[in-house]
Amino acid sequence: HAGDKIYFAYNEPYTFTQLTQLISQVKLQQQSLPKEEHYAKCETICKSISGIEIPMLTITSNIEDTICDMTKLPTENGLMELIEGEVSEWEAEAVEEFRETVKQRVKEQHKKVVIVTARIHPGEACGSHVMEGFIKFITSSHPIAIELRERMIIKVI
User: Fold this and answer.
1) Residues 61, 78: Cα–Cα separation, whole Å
2) pLDDT tens digits, residue range 113-154?
3) Which of 76, 100, 122, 126 has its CA 20 to 30 A from that of 90?
4) Could you give the CA distance from residue 138 to residue 125 in angstroms, rounded to a whole number?
5) Helix (H) or strand (E) holding 116
């Protein structure tokens, strides 16, 4: 028709609502499982400039027994500081004991940490669709997905 505007898109949009629905589905999948079989955890890693919470999914087998908080993993310089400011001798000993426990548990897990990201820029909706497929697969009951969760700690951002 005369006067109509036509727009072309190289990809179907992917909304933040779709992302939150996907995360809700992952959480719902786990509710029917015993706690020791849970494999996913969602946490907010930061907020966007507009104040939207940016989620990070951690996916691995036996998530309740896995050290997932990246701020508590050993680094070359030891653990990131857990207590700011001055600490008593007792607090210092407790932190050091915690550090050693964490280091030992990480060694016992023998799991590599894999970080998967998508949609770094707003126009990269294709990456969101691919990431949705990845999340659906890695949280599925497919034997390869189960094996990957056994061997890795997967951080999805």
Assistant:
1) 26
2) 888 988 777 778 889 999 999 999 999 999 999 999 998 989
3) 76
4) 20
5) strand 112-116
Q: What is d(CA 154, CA 157) in angstroms, rounded to the nearest whole number?
A: 10
Tell me how crowded residue 38 is: count the other CB atoms within 10 A of its CB: 19
d(CA 58, CA 113): 10
The rounded distance, in Å, linking the Cα atoms of 139 and 148 is: 10
CA quadruple 134, 23, 57, 14: dihedral positive or negative?
Answer: positive
Q: What is the pLDDT of residues 18-47, one digit of tens each?
A: 999 999 999 998 888 888 888 998 988 888
Reduced to 3 states (helix: H, G, I; strand: E, B; else coil), residue 41 is: strand
pTM over 0.85: no
